[in-house]
Amino acid sequence: MRKRKLGKTGLEVSELGFGCWAIGGASYGPTEDRESLKALAYGFDQNINFFDTADTYGNGHSEQLIGETFKESSKRLQVVIATKVGWDFYRGWGKRNFNPDYIRFACGESLKRLRTDYIDLYQLHNPRMEEIEEGSMFKMLSELKREGKIRHWGVSIHGVGEGVEVIQKGTETIQAIYNMIDQRIKPELIPLCGEHDIGLIAREPLYCGLLTDKYHHKTKFRKDDHRNRWTREKLETDFKKIERIKMILFGTRYVTGQVPRKNGIEPVPALPADRPAVPGTVINLKQAAIEFVLYEQAVSVVIPGMKTVSHVQDHLKAVETPSLTSDEVNRIHRLFQEDELFQTVFYRN
Description:
- By secondary structure, this protein is an alpha/beta fold.
- The protein has helices at 33-45, 61-69, 73-76, 100-114, 129-134, 136-146, 160-168, 189-195, 232-250, 285-294, 309-320, 326-338, and strands at 3-5, 12-14, 18-19, 50-52, 80-85, 87-88, 95-96, 119-125, 150-156, 173-177, 199-203, 259-260, 265-266, 299-303.
- The chain has an 8-stranded parallel β-sheet, covered by helices on one side.
- α1 packs parallel to α11 (309-320) and α10 (285-294) crosses α11 (309-320).
């Protein structure tokens, strides 16, 4: 597993990280704790050392699973645990809360669930611009760092403007959406992260699972899956975008593969026979999506969501046998820049 520097933190992190939203439950459908713990342990055994979660994932459950996995000091010292704060679920349904006193309280609760006395990276969880500009939360983060409760702090953001502003506030890392469908951070924010030595954590490389070839535009998500809020218009538009991406990656040729559909099975686009590839590997959309993100050298770590050992194994292929070419990456960049369809139907997650 190759490692990259997490910006000015100086931490060395595996380029493939473990996204821990799904294992919290109630966001991407049902989970089994036994399988989640196996997946976390397997990822660690495969030299994944960056584990990203948030206190609100499963109302603390994701943090509890991480705490159980790395409760032994020998393991804890080998991993970088990143969590987030800003959604107050302690008093009923989660509400935004970036009050400094709340941040101190929530940090203490996260430390208990993680079964550790320090958090490697503590991140504000998608604050709005007005909250960033007010700024009092940053003073609290600095206090927690001086006290040794956190080693470093960063901000998870949605908009490019928010990212630019938190750089001015002294953030050490930025977590942002970046994938083949949503490349809004590339023109301005990615270069700024490189210029200011900001660790860039790329989330949603699989676009909440749509870049896995498991779904189609008529998919109906469960009530305990956050994607059930998406409109039919969004799904139809997203899958039109995905078809354009597939034409770049796979042309018109197909190999045997299957995608679940409501009625029957449809083939999965795969490698044309003349495409260069690592012998013995099968290139698919999921692997290409992760490779695309890691092709950006300013990205410190990519954090696809994982719920099972098989998810970990699938994602590892992208770093063990990369096959995406620079021409394909550039054509996907141009697609985002030039195709008007790609400038529509964005969302805040």
